[in-house]
Amino acid sequence: MARISTRQNRRAEVLGLSLPAPRRAAAAAMVAVFAGAALVAAPACKGRRRHHDPAPGPGSGSVAAAAPAVPDRIEGTLTLDGQPLAIERCRPGRDGTIYVDLVTAAGALRFLGGEAEHMFWNPRPDANVRGSAIACAIPHRSWGGGTRPDGAAYFRGELVFSCEGPPAITGKVSLDCGDIRPDERASLDEQRRQKREELERAAGSAAAPPAPGSDVPR
User: Fold this and answer.
1) pLDDT per residue over 84-106, tens digit each?
2) 196 domain residue, yes or no
3) Which of 105, 130, 133, 136 has the greatest number of C-beta atoms within 10 Å?
4) Highest mean pLDDT out of 5-19, 62-76, 120-134
């Protein structure tokens, strides 16, 4: 009759077995097989995060926090052929330079930075295109903006304009468009300060206003 070792007997006892010696030997052999399989399988679990482990905390670098969105600000009035026209949204972008579209139900009017005599009318408001040039007087254009590494643009400004058309469009608006972040706003403020100082020095007086129709950073 085969003899079973004391260690194998203990393994059988752990399993709650009370068997004849041959069957105790078989049970102990099974325990040894299971124990060896567990030792082989254990390394496969190494490095895996258990589901009860805490999630990465703030600042760990595992998850990038999204910046909160900043609502656009649109103030002022717009008329189309003498009738009031609501501005539904503003759409900033870059087309050689920064621009902003005033999007309405009837179409989109584009102001292109640095352009003093024309704006651009597109009768398809959802199409992000320049549209046709229309002659405009833009006596006040105080604006600033920029683009981000992902290509998104932002615009801040005040515009007063009158366009002969067709269509005939007039407007006086103040805008913050494109989810302007605090660091971008601070940069616009600094650019405005520097430009105004430059204009004041050129005019020879700290109290002299910029020339009518000049582009002043907003």
Assistant:
1) 999 999 999 999 999 999 999 99
2) yes
3) 136
4) 120-134
Kindly state whether residues 34 and 77 are assigned to the same domain: no
Bigger pLDDT: 20 vs 185: 185
Report CA 123 to chain centroid distance, whole Å: 28
The answer to whether residues 139 and 160 touch, using CB atoms and an 8 Å cutoff, is yes
Tell me how far apart the alpha carbons of residues 27 and 34 are, in angstroms, rounded to a whole number: 11
**In the block, which residue shows the tokens 């009837």?**
106
Least Cα distance to 137 among 161, 113, 159, 104 occurs for 161
Distance CA 185, CA 132 (A): 31
132-147/215-216 β-pairing: parallel
Number of domains within the chain = 2
Q: Is residue 57 included in any domain, yes or no?
A: no
Q: Is the CB of residue 104 less than 8 Å from the CB of residue 97?
A: no
**Residue 16 is part of which domain span?**
6-41
Q: How far is CA 140 from CA 57, 211, 217, in A?
A: 50, 10, 11
* Same-domain pairing of 20 and 93: no
Residues with Cβ within 8 Å of residue 217, at least 6 apart in sequence:
142, 143, 144, 188, 191, 192, 194, 195, 196
Q: Is the peptide bond before 182 cis (omega within 30 degrees of 0)?
A: no
- Same structural domain, 127 and 197: yes
| CA dihedral angle for residue 104, residue 107, residue 111, residue 112, rounded to 10 degrees | 140
